[in-house]
């Protein structure tokens, strides 16, 4: 079985020794990208001869994934029921995909071994510019796969935390594109007027980063609204792995979050109760 050192393109991304000048330049570039555009995209992070194998493993697992299709608010951490119908906080978008949760992994896949590799965790910590970082201890959501077939996609939304880490394993033949509006809101200003224009698909607000299979991506999603466009006609699903970390050891996700993925409610989700 391949060791992570044979999975990552270490010649291009020398993350195995973060003290080298090349690694420090890489970390500086990642931090700069995150500060300026909210996203750091490392295309070609996974070796070309490995990414297809990882995608095959993921697609086989996705056949037994949990199917999700529901209406969700972009502001899931807030109370959103008392706003006018045309307000961004009243917006609902369809989310549709198949998810594979941590407990469904067999324990020996390439993506699992990569996630458990300490040099990767150290690199993510340095790239995000934080002092401590640990892999999530959640038995369900520490490592996830999302698979999107024809008609699937994720509507506009903000993340409840910053520093989302993902690995694109496979792109569909049509659609399934990641779009974002970097730092469209701040903790002091929700900037609802611009968000409303974004939801109306007004041009010039969102950007579409170039993300190719094998790309390792760091994203600041709490203040940057984003979506995955609907997948069109395709012979293969969009496959992406989501890797969860936290600044404190032992982090697990709330059971309500796990339940939403394993047994999603058909009712629209408007956010937390007030």
Care to describe what's here?
By secondary structure, this protein is of the alpha+beta class. It has a single domain (4-262), classed as Sandwich (Jelly Rolls). The chain is 24% helix and 22% strand. It is built from 6 helices and 12 strands. The chain has helices spanning 21-37, 48-62, 110-115, 118-128, 192-199, 255-262; strands at residues 39-42, 66-72, 93-100, 134-135, 143-148, 153-157, 164-170, 178-181, 216-219, 225-228, 238-243, 245-246. The strands form 2 sheets. Strands 1, 2, 3, 5, 6, 7, 8, 9, 10 and 11 form a 10-stranded antiparallel β-sheet that branches. The protein has a two-stranded antiparallel sheet with strand order 4-12. The chain is globular. The N and C termini lie far apart (50 Å). The model has no long low-confidence stretch (mean pLDDT 94).
Oligomer: single chain
State the major sheet. Answer: 10 strands, antiparallel
Extended strand count: 12
Taken as a percent bin, the fraction of beta residues is: 15-25%
Domain module tally:
1
SS summary, helix count: 6
CATH superfamily: q2cbj1_9rhob like domain
From the helix content, strand content and strand pairing, which structural class follows? alpha+beta
CATH-derived architecture: Sandwich
Mean pLDDT equals: 94
Q: Give the termini separation.
A: 50 Å
């Amino acid at each position: 079985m391949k060791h992570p050192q044979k999975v990552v393109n270490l010649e291009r991304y020398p993350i195995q020794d973060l003290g080298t000048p090349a690694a420090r330049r890489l970390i500086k570039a990642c931090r700069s990208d995150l500060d300026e555009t909210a996203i750091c995209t490392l295309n070609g992070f996974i070796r070309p001869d490995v990414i297809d194998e990882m995608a095959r493993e993921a697609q086989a697992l996705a056949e037994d994934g949990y199917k999700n299709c529901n209406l969700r608010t972009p502001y899931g951490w807030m109370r959103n029921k008392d706003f006018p119908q045309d307000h961004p906080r009243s917006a609902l978008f369809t989310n549709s995909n198949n998810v594979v949760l941590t407990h469904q992994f067999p324990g020996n896949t390439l993506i699992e071994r990569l996630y458990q590799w300490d040099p990767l965790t150290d690199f993510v910590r340095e790239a995000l510019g934080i002092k401590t970082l640990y892999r999530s201890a959640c038995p369900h959501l520490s490592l996830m796969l999302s698979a999107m077939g024809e008609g699937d996609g994720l509507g506009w939304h903000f993340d409840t935390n910053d520093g989302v880490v993902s690995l694109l394993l496979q792109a569909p033949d049509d659609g399934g594109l990641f779009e974002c509006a970097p730092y469209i809101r701040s903790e002091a200003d929700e900037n609802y007027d611009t968000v409303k224009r974004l939801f109306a698909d007004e041009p010039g607000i969102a950007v579409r980063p170039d993300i190719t299979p094998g790309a390792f991506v760091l994203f600041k999603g709490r203040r940057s609204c984003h979506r995955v466009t609907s997948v069109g006609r395709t012979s293969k699903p969009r496959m992406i792995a989501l890797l969860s970390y936290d600044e404190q050891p032992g982090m697990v996700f709330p059971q309500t979050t796990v339940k939403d993925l394993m047994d999603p409610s058909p009712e629209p989700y408007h956010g937390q109760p007030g």
